[in-house]
Design goal:
Four Helix Bundle (Hemerythrin (Met), subunit A); 8 helices
Length: 171
């Protein structure tokens, strides 16, 4: 097994969690906040896909799925198309109110773009420096692990909220 195989497996595990979280989820489930400032499932899944898309696209030398495939317009969120969730306010978190189907479509498109990029890599590619603003400079391998780590954490949060909403009997 190569390092890129491990990355492919890791990102595929996130996909499994996201699919389970979205399966059968209605508006009440997707927008429920377990406290007034908490992240919703809708925001968490959007942020997973956006964060991945916004970071992978430049590494791959391509366009973000978000704008290229019209998802930004379909979501019609009340903040700039460049937003990816980092540093957003509680009000902005609450503004992500879209269907599970649309969330799933965007997540899947972002995920497929990530896998396509990963399949072009070999282990030597992971040593390439992609960000010199840090000490030590960030390699492609470190950046990909950072993206995967963020995805896994937010997927776990979404799964937790889904469990809470199920106990509350929300749909």
């Amino acid at each position: 097994m190569t390092a890129t195989d491990v990355l492919l497996d890791g990102f595929s595990r996130v996909r499994g969690v996201v699919e389970n979280v979205l399966k059968g989820a209605g508006e009440a489930t997707l927008t429920h906040r377990i406290d007034p400032e908490a992240n919703t499932i809708a925001w968490l899944v959007w942020h997973i896909a956006r964060g991945q898309d916004a970071q992978i696209a430049p590494l791959a030398g391509g366009d973000e799925v978000w704008t290229r495939d019209g998802f930004a317009d379909r979501f019609a969120l009340p903040f700039p198309h460049s937003a990816s969730g980092y540093g957003q306010t509680s009000e902005e978190v609450g503004a992500v109110d879209v269907s599970a189907d649309l969330l799933g479509d965007y997540y899947d498109a972002s995920h497929e773009a990530t896998l396509a990029f990963l399949r072009t890599l070999d282990d030597a590619d992971l040593e390439r420096v992609v960000d010199t603003a840090w000490v030590p400079p960030v390699t492609l391998g470190v950046r990909l692990m950072s993206i995967l780590d963020d995805n896994l954490q937010h997927a776990g949060q979404a799964a937790y909220v889904r469990g809470v909403t199920a106990r509350l009997g929300l749909r």
